[in-house]
Design a protein that fits this description.
13-stranded mixed β-sheet, 2 domains, Pseudouridine synthase, 4-stranded antiparallel β-sheet, 337 residues, single chain, Structural Genomics Hypothetical 15.5 Kd Protein In mrcA-pckA Intergenic Region, Chain A, alpha+beta
Length: 337
C-alpha cells in the first residue's frame, strides 16, 4: 500500500492502565491557631517550592518526571499532571506521553495552573503536536453542525487544546457514527489534516471494526462490493447500477455465531458513509440495533458496531502507530450460555 517502510511502534490498547502502589504521607503539624487542626495528608507540593528540570535527552513527560522528581510517587505525579501543575517551556501540559526534546525546561509547580475540564463519553489514547487519538463511547456525536449545541467529541477536544492556547484548533480526519464506539483521531492543524486526507489510502494501514449482526452468517469470510448513494431522506443505499455512486469495498471474517446472531471482524478497504451498515443489510444480516438499515433486534441496547483497530503512519515522525480497543462485553453476551 505504501512504498515507505515505516518504523513500527508497540501496540497501544485503550483499556490498558498501569497499577501502582500508593505511598503514605506523614500528617502535617499544628496550624498555629488556638484550636488544633485535624491531621491532614500532604505531598511534596506542600513542602517544596516549584522546581525546574532541564531535559538532557528525548523522553515522554510522565517517564521523565518519574525518573527525576524525588519524594513523589508515580500516582502523585499523575495527579500533578492532571491538575495542570506541570509545564514545558512555560506551557502547561497534562498529557502523560507528551514528547520532550533536549534543552526544554520542565517545571513542577505547587499551584494549580489550569482547570481540568472533564471529558464526557471519550478518553484520549494519544496526543502530540500533530494529532489526537481518542476512544469514543457509543452515543457521543463525533461532530455536529453549527446549529446544534449538543456535546460532541469535536467540541470537547477543541476546549481541551485551547487550555494551552486560546487559538488552538482541531480538524476532522474521519468520523464515527453517533452510536458507533471505538478508536478515531483528529488533526491539530489544517496542514496535517490536508496531508493525511489526500494520502488517506497510503497512510492508513488498518481500520478494523467488530460488528454484531442478526442471523447466522454461513460463509467464514467474504467481500462485499457496491456503489453507494444517498437518498433524499439521507439514507445510504447500494445502487443496482455499476459506477453509479461511490465505490465501496468491505471485507469480513466470521468470529463466532449461533442461530440468532453472528460476530464479525470487518475491515474497510474504502471508508464511505454508513458503509458497513449498508453492506450488512445487503447480505441479509443487518447490524443489531440498526433500525435504519433493517434491524429488528434491540438485544444489547445500542448499535452493534465498534471501531476496534486504527493503524496509520504518523504524519510527522513516519512511525507506524496502532491503537486497539477491546470488543464491548455486550457484543459477547448473545454467545454466552
Amino acid at each position: 500500500m505504501n512504498n515507505r517502510k515505516p518504523q513500527r511502534k508497540n501496540h497501544t490498547k485503550s483499556t490498558s492502565n498501569a497499577s501502582h502502589s500508593k505511598r503514605s504521607h506523614k500528617p502535617a503539624g499544628r496550624s498555629g491557631s488556638h484550636r488544633p487542626e485535624a491531621p491532614r495528608r500532604t505531598n511534596a507540593f506542600d513542602k517544596a517550592p516549584a522546581k525546574t528540570y532541564i531535559v538532557q535527552e528525548p523522553a515522554e513527560l510522565l517517564s521523565f518526571l518519574v525518573e527525576h522528581v524525588t519524594g513523589m510517587g508515580r500516582n502523585s505525579i499523575k495527579s500533578a499532571l492532571a491538575r495542570g501543575q506541570v509545564s514545558v517551556n512555560g506551557i502547561p501540559r497534562t498529557v502523560h506521553n507528551f514528547p520532550l526534546e533536549q534543552g526544554q525546561t520542565v517545571a513542577l509547580s505547587k499551584e494549580k495552573v489550569i482547570p481540568v475540564v472533564p471529558l464526557t463519553g471519550l478518553r484520549i489514547l494519544h496526543e502530540d503536536e500533530a494529532i489526537i487519538v481518542i476512544h469514543k463511547d457509543a452515543g457521543l456525536l463525533s461532530v455536529a453542525s453549527a446549529q446544534e449545541q449538543e456535546v460532541t467529541a469535536y467540541r470537547q477536544l477543541t476546549a481541551h487544546v485551547r487550555r494551552e492556547h486560546p487559538y488552538n484548533r482541531i480538524f476532522v480526519l474521519h468520523r464515527l457514527d453517533r452510536d458507533t464506539s471505538g478508536v478515531m483521531m483528529f488533526a491539530k492543524s489544517e496542514a496535517i489534516q490536508q496531508e493525511m486526507q489526500k494520502a488517506w489510502k497510503e497512510v492508513v494501514y488498518e481500520r478494523t471494526y467488530i460488528a454484531l449482526v442478526e442471523g447466522q452468517v454461513k460463509k467464514a469470510e467474504g467481500t462485499i462490493t457496491s456503489w453507494l448513494k444517498e437518498s433524499k431522506t439521507l439514507k445510504m443505499y447500494s445502487s443496482p447500477y455499476p459506477n453509479d455512486g461511490q465505490h465501496a469495498v468491505t471485507h469480513y471474517k466470521l468470529l463466532q455465531a449461533n442461530r440468532h446472531f453472528s460476530l464479525l471482524e470487518v475491515r474497510l478497504e474504502t471508508g464511505r458513509k454508513n458503509q458497513i451498515r449498508v453492506h450488512m443489510e445487503d447480505i441479509g444480516h443487518p447490524i443489531v440495533g440498526d433500525k435504519k438499515y433493517g434491524s429488528k433486534s434491540k438485544s444489547i441496547g445500542r448499535l452493534g458496531l465498534h471501531a476496534r483497530v486504527l493503524s496509520f503512519i504518523h504524519p510527522v515522525t513516519g512511525v507506524l502507530l496502532r491503537f486497539e480497543s477491546d470488543i464491548p462485553k455486550t457484543f459477547l453476551n448473545p454467545f454466552r450460555e
